[in-house]
Design a protein that fits this description.
CsbD-like domain-containing protein; mainly alpha
Amino acid sequence: MGSTSDKISGAANQATGKVKQTAGEMTGNDKLRAEGKGQEVKGKVQSATGKAKDTVKGAVDSI
């Protein structure tokens, strides 16, 4: 996956995770809330991976 794809997927997972958490809180569904938190964390990791790839690419391109 490219850096842009990672960042887009990461943002989507973070947003979806937040929606699930909110839905879980509103309905009292702890499983949905936990799922949402997990998905949000996954999204943060994907976004960080995309940023890291950009940093590495920038460093390699400047050599």
